[in-house]
Amino acid sequence: AQTVTQSQPEMSVQEAETVTLSCTYDTSESDYYLFWYKQPPSRQMILVIRQEAYKQQNATENRFSVNFQKAAKSFSLKISDSQLGDAAMYFCAYRSAQGGSEKLVFGKGTKLTVNP
Amino acid sequence: DTGVSQDPRHKITKRGQNVTFRCDPISEHNRLYWYRQTLGQGPEFLTYFQNEAQLEKSRLLSDRFSAERPKGSFSTLEIQRTEQGDSAMYLCASSFHGTSGRDTQYFGPGTRLTVL
Predict the structure, then answer these.
(1) pLDDT at B102 > cutoff 70
(2) Does A43 have pLDDT greater than 90?
(3) What is the C-alpha separation between A24 and B83, in angstroms, rounded?
(4) pLDDT (mean) for B12-38
(5) Is B66 exposed, middle or buried (0-12, 13-18, 19+ CB in 10 A)?
(6) Nearest to residue B40, comparing CAs of A115, A111, A61?
(7) Are the beta carbons of B116 and B12 closer than 8 angstroms?
(8) Rg for chain B (alpha carbons), in Å?
(9) Count of alpha carbons within 13 Å of A50, Cβ hemisphere only?
(10) What is the pLDDT of residues B81-90, one digit of tens each?
């Protein structure tokens, strides 16, 4: 079974600075997707960024980018120019691309605090 | 597109009572997922539907849990004889599953269940 590990329960960053959230995963599959979801306090989870495992190029979405290291099974999220609205729980998630339910397997999350 | 909606947002019940939650997915989405999230943890997969067919259930889904999606649109999750351990946030997500495999799951706001 696939597992996702987020080793940083909490992180903090100063407004306008850059922060990197770590994620590692374990799988024997070669084809899969990786995601970062953001869950603000008392609000619903939203997709931040996704990465297809077959793509070598790291995904970017505005201030958000990933460092995908397939051999190391590492998938970190970099947030540049941090804003107060970035404060949230961030979850790393894995999804198989080999058919079936394609359920998401989540890590335990990292709570990000943005200091003004 | 009004997003995924869930009702109720909060439910407080006494141990032993039955509860039912409803999820309305994004209208064109053919897949619907249920997840459970306990405090300090990432969401865990419970079950999913493709159209009206329930195709996978997690071992987390005990006999006291039942889910339906009768017309392939909204879904209900019922918990019978609730226990204190059932206290959690119940999240619904939907996606459009097509041939590309690029379907993204969109989450609702969740139903927070408290069992006294």
Answers:
(1) no
(2) no
(3) 34
(4) 95
(5) middle
(6) A111
(7) yes
(8) 14
(9) 17
(10) 999 999 999 9
> Pick from A50, A101, A108: which is nearest to B40 by CB?
A108
Statement: residue B10 has pLDDT above 80: yes
| Complete DSSP assignment for A103-116 | -EEE---EEEEEE-
Q: Indicate the burial class of B73 (C-beta count within 10 angstroms; 0-12, 13-18, 19 or more).
A: middle
Place of tokens 């006999």: B63
Residue linked to tokens 């619907």: B32
Q: What is the pLDDT of residue B99?
A: 67
- Judged by CB atoms closer than 8 Å, whether chains meet at B42 and A102 is answered as no
Interface of B with A (CB under 8 A): 4, 33, 35, 40-45, 48, 55-56, 91, 93, 97, 101-110
pLDDT at B46: 96
Distance from CA of B48 to the nearest CA of A (A): 7
Indicate if the pLDDT at residue B45 is higher than 80.
yes
Backbone φ and ψ of B53, nearest 5°: -90, 130
Per-residue confidence (pLDDT) for residue B1, from 0 to 100: 54
Number of H helices, E strands in chain A: 0, 12
